[in-house]
Each structure stands twice: as C-alpha cells, then as structure tokens.
C-alpha cells in the first residue's frame, strides 16, 4: 500500500494518525458538494488525516481544512455548531448498512451496487459497467444532447 501511495504522490504516515469521529467531516462534505468543492475537501481531509496527522474529528481542524479549499470558515463553523446535513449523513449510513458496508474505501454505484476496498482499475471498470447496466436510463429525445448529467 505504501508503495502504491508513493507512486501516486501520496505519503501515508500511520504514525501520525489521530483517531476520532468523522461524522462532522461527512456533514461538511455534503455542504462542500453544494459549492462544487466536495472532491477538493475530501482530498484535503484525507491528506490532513493520513499525512499530516490532523484530528479530523475536531471542529477547529475541520474549519481550517474547509477554509484551505476556499470554503467559508464562518459558515463551516456554523454548520458544525448546528445539525445541518445530519439527515443526509444518517441516510448515507443507512444505505451503507443496507449494502453491507463494513469498511472503507467503499464505492456505491447506481445506488445499487457496492464495491469494497481498494480495487484494481479493471475491477472498478467492470463494476462501473455493471452499474451502467443497472442504472435506469432517461428517455432520449430526438436531437437531444446527452452527457453524464442527463439530456438537454
């Protein structure tokens, strides 16, 4: 795992990891999605946790990491002090239980197919192809332009 991570430019520092509850980090990820920053925040959280040894269960750390990717620190703090996105995270947890998820990483595709653990590219590609088959296609209108977000 270390070699694969290093080859991808990742430095895993398990000696620095500080365990904690990531529920609030998941709430901030839902918020970040609304601002088009979910991927950036997810990467920043993982680097903070896996490389820098930051305690991503702590509100001050989460606010700082959100600000690092251009999200509003004051709004992040307000979210963490309240219960915004709690329902969304609980829904994610329920889906995880329904799919039998017991570890991470875990990929949910088409809301119906789950793939557990780090997988080779070929396995993920096969799972994506199967998910595409399971997805309910939108009706195609003649002359419409279709992409990954649907048809115009």
Description of the molecule:
This protein has 152 residues and is mainly alpha-helical. The chain contains 7 helices and 4 strands. It has helices at residues 2-7, 23-34, 38-50, 59-68, 73-81, 86-99, 121-134, and strands at residues 106-109, 113-116, 146-147, 150-151. A two-stranded antiparallel sheet has the order 1-2. A two-stranded antiparallel ribbon has the order 3-4. Strand 3 (146-147) and strand 4 (150-151) form a beta hairpin.
Write the layout of secondary structure elements.
Layout: H1 2-7, H2 23-34, H3 38-50, H4 59-68, H5 73-81, H6 86-99, E1 106-109, E2 113-116, H7 121-134, E3 146-147, E4 150-151
Antiparallel strand pairs: 1-2, 3-4
In short:
This protein has helices spanning 2-7, 23-34, 38-50, 59-68, 73-81, 86-99, 121-134, and strands spanning 106-109, 113-116, 146-147, 150-151.
Shape-level CATH architecture of the largest domain: 3-Layer(aba) Sandwich
CATH-assigned fold name of the largest domain = Glutaredoxin
Arrangement of strands in the largest sheet: 1-2
Chain-averaged pLDDT: 85
- Listing every helix as H and every strand as E from the N terminus to the C terminus, the arrangement reads HHHHHHEEHEE
Task: Give the class-level CATH name of the largest domain.
Answer: Alpha Beta
Low-confidence stretches: none
Number of domains: 2
Q: In angstroms, what separates the terminal alpha carbons?
A: 42 Å
Which structural class matches the secondary elements? mainly alpha
| Beta-strand residue fraction | 5-15%
Radius of gyration: 18 Å
Rough outline: globular
Number of helices: 7
Helix content: 40-55%
Number of strands: 4
In this structure, how is the largest beta sheet organized?
2 strands, antiparallel
Q: Which superfamily, in CATH terms, is the homologous superfamily of the largest domain?
A: Glutaredoxin
């Amino acid at each position: 795992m270390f070699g694969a991570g290093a080859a991808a430019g990742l430095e895993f520092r398990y000696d620095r990891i500080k365990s904690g509850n990531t529920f609030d980090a998941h709430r901030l990820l839902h918020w970040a999605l609304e601002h088009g920053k979910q991927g950036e925040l997810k990467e920043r959280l993982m680097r903070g946790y896996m490389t820098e040894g930051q305690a991503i269960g702590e509100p001050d750390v989460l606010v700082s990491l959100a600000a690092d990717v251009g999200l509003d620190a004051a709004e992040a703090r307000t979210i963490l002090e309240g219960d915004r996105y709690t329902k969304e995270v609980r829904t994610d947890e329920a889906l995880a239980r329904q799919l039998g998820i017991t570890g991470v990483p875990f990929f949910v595709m088409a809301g119906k197919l789950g793939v557990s653990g780090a997988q080779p590219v070929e396995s993920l590609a096969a799972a994506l192809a199967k998910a595409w088959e399971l997805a309910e296609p939108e009706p195609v209108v003649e002359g419409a332009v279709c992409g990954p977000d649907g048809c115009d």
